[in-house]
Design brief:
This protein is α+β, with helices and mostly antiparallel strands. The chain has helices at residues 24-36, 44-55, 60-70, 74-83, 103-109, 112-121, 166-185; strands spanning 95-100, 134-139, 151-153, 156-158. The protein binds FE2/S2 (inorganic) cluster.
């Protein structure tokens, strides 16, 4: 078993999403953008992303804020949030791994890629590691078919990825997270 399997010296509380109040300047900026749009709906996804970035995921608090800012109902925004794979209604890890389960990728890895990820992290698809560093989310085509099999981690594409490459990629991200903590503690 890989030495990084589900374990990390990083404090478990380091990435616990907080319900910090939204700074007034952030709220004002979002309201300004919504007011400038032809219809508030055009800005719905941008507002949801901005609030998700602030809260760590699109929490109920974030949803309520988004409703206030956009003048839309909970139901309308809930429908949008559950439609988009990149809006997270549940807490996620610091690194969200969108592993492609589209046809092109699947034909090239035949499950081996998924197994390598799950074995390296010690969690199943759709789950988050106990240290809250990684969440694996199977996602329909991530738009990187020419580099299949591919995955997207916090906006960065990795592909083509072999099962053998997975432990090294995870170890690098773990190291980066530890360095972030060191910087925060200085
Ligand atoms: S099918 Fe995997 S990126 Fe398109």
């Amino acid at each position: 078993m890989d030495e990084t399997n589900g374990k990390s010296p990083v404090s478990a509380c380091a990435f616990t999403p907080g319900e910090r109040s939204l700074p007034p300047e952030v709220e004002e900026e979002l309201k300004r953008k919504v007011a400038a749009a032809e219809h508030p709906r055009e800005m719905a996804v941008d507002v949801m992303y901005a609030l998700q970035n602030h809260y760590g995921y699109f929490s109920d608090t974030a949803l309520t804020h988004a409703c206030d800012i956009l003048g839309m109902t909970h139901v309308e925004l809930e429908e949008l949030a559950t439609f988009y794979d990149y809006i997270y209604r549940e807490p996620v890890g610091k690194y969200v791994i969108h592993v492609c389960d589209g046809v092109v990728c699947y034909l090239r890895h035949d499950d081996a890629f998924f197994r390598a990820l799950c074995e390296t992290l010690g969690v199943g698809l759709g789950e988050t590691t106990a240290d809250r560093l990684f969440t694996i989310l199977p996602t329909a085509c991530i738009g990187d078919c020419h580099k299949a099999p591919s995955m997207l981690i916090n906006g960065v594409f990795y592909g083509p990825v072999t099962p053998e490459m997975v432990p090294g990629i995870i170890a690098d991200l773990r190291k980066r997270a530890e360095e972030d903590i060191e910087v925060m503690c200085r």
